[in-house]
User: Fold this.
Amino acid sequence: MRKISLIGLLLAGAVALGCGAGSTDQGGSGISGDSGAGTEEKAGAKVAKVGDAVRDGKFEFTVKSVKCGVRKVGTDLLGATAQGQFCLVTVNVKNIGKEPQSFSDSNQKAYAADGTEYSTDSEAGLYANKDADALFNEINPGNGITGVLVFDIPKGGKLAKLELHDSLFSGGITVQLG
Assistant:
């Protein structure tokens, strides 16, 4: 019983420390995230779309393209096959901060119009990216990467929006896809 309480206390402490890890430092131009709801939910706020530069914490994101209906990524010898269909989201990520910042594909989310949430498929991402930049990468200030986020969604499904994060605990910024 004591071990379980100690583990719970340690986990709670890690979560509390982690909550400060995701910054919401804004600044500069572009649409910025905050610790609350996505851009489209704010009264009078501009809705971010594909091609718009948007910011969450230390990262500026630009979604370049979205392609769904992909059955397989990689080569015939090495690749991943979708359970449903892959949606490939090409995104630029630039560090706008003053310190190195780690980018992880697992912090990014996609949503269907009905609110169904999808996580990235990191294994498929290995095959969709030539050098795995979009999976996990430390980006130095002023530098950026371009990579493909891979979401495995049901056949016939569509993505309505993305929620992009500079870290696990950041507020995120929403980009409408339709």
